[in-house]
Sequence to fold (347 residues):
Amino acid sequence: MGTKRQILSHAFKTAFPNTIPIFAGFTFLGMAYGIYMNASGFSFLYPMLMSLTILAGSIEFVTVGLLLGPFDPLGAFILALTINARHLFYGISMLGKYRVSGLKRLYLIFGMCDESFSVNYMADIPEGVDRGWFQFFVTALNHSYWVLGATLGGLLGHIVEFDTKGLEFIMTALFIVLFLNQWMKEKNHHSSIIGLTVSATCLILFGSSGFIIPAMVLILLILTVFKNTFTKAGVVS
Amino acid sequence: MTMNVHEHIITIIAVILGTMATRFLPFILFPADKPTPKYIEYLGKVIPAAVLGLLVVYSLKDVEILTGSHGIPELISIAIVVVLHIWKKQMLLSIAAGTVAYMLLVQFIF
Fold:
């Protein structure tokens, strides 16, 4: 089984550096979330189990409010669908990229948060590194950072003094870098520009809590209407 | 008024189901063993670039332009990330420098 072990350790060593910024961002944001739950009167088991099973930052923060309000599971379901609708786009982008099967595939889809999607989508996996295991380790490492942060925050909520103000910018920096990598890679910037400008316009028009769905619909509409132009322009190789 | 533990668990399960629906739906609608419609294949190629743009905006959605520091620390830090990344192309360096700059700006200057 030496070869199997070699494949695994090679994939792990290649995947890990890609997750370092997320380690910093997730332990920090996860702790903020755990502390928030602790301050709202919940045991550390709540942030620990919720970060393990939901694995989607913004809806987990929102769920704290839901748990403190009146019992409304249907409302909670619909809210989760709406807040996380952007994952639909990730799935469409990864249809051909998660080329593994079985449990590993289910786990990759389960763990497809913003960060695991964008790192796995943009990663230039070197020749000789197992694709499926690389994607698995990126997803599992990110997942574990998030659970670690949330659990620590839930446990240490009373003690921790926060002087890490501004560290949350690490996620913005990560997405900007990934956006630039895509920009430098593509022959043509139609889709990047559409994504940026449509989202910014919708944010101004609809505000921070309701802009994602209109932005997604508009992006989809523009990409569909101009399908022939973009195909000819060579956006699609 | 306040929920009991069972109601908590049901609420959390509802959130899990809603979240997982958004992650699994494309893979259920377009399974790997069947040919994907041409239109969806096209979307799969053009959407990622747009979605990365959406994520950049999403991560900045709570920045207050009209009040507080008017988004100036964000603008400076974004400029640092962009310039450094185009110049050096070192992912970790660009992210670290931008984040440290942002932390110094919001802690000491703004």
Observations:
- The mean pLDDT of chain A is 90.
